[in-house]
Amino acid sequence: MEHNKYHLALKTAFASEFSFYLKSHNFHWNVEGPLFESLHSLFERIYLEVYGAIDPFAEHLRALQIYTPASLQKFSMLTTVEDENAVPAWSDMLQELLADSDKMAEIFRITFEMAEANGDHGLSNFLADRQDAHKKHSWMLRSSLK
Length: 146
Ligand SMILES: [Fe+2]
Known about the structure:
Layout: H1 3-30, H2 36-63, H3 72-78, H4 90-117, H5 121-143
Bound molecules: fe (ii) ion.
């Protein structure tokens, strides 16, 4: 596989994961409504889990000699998770973060295949774990909307 495409996909996944982290923290801070307590806690659980993956992910990139994107401008150029500048209603927050989490699971499914094809098995293990983590986040967000 062409390295440029592989490396760009990994940088995109990293920037998207960081943006997802930021949005879940945003929603933890700004959520309002009758379910405040439980949603404030759910968003916290999610942002803490995702934040815990950011540093290991960055160091996986460095191990492949990729410079880690690490500025707001670089993130906004690379991310597939769009910024939320408004304060959506609580149910819209759930729907938006669910769509983003599903997107992240798909990004990690694809980058897993790329890492496997390159023989980067430590990284592919990490990416498989990220896919799994996002499937769990999606489950909790989806269940909160029923
Ligand atoms: Fe907090």
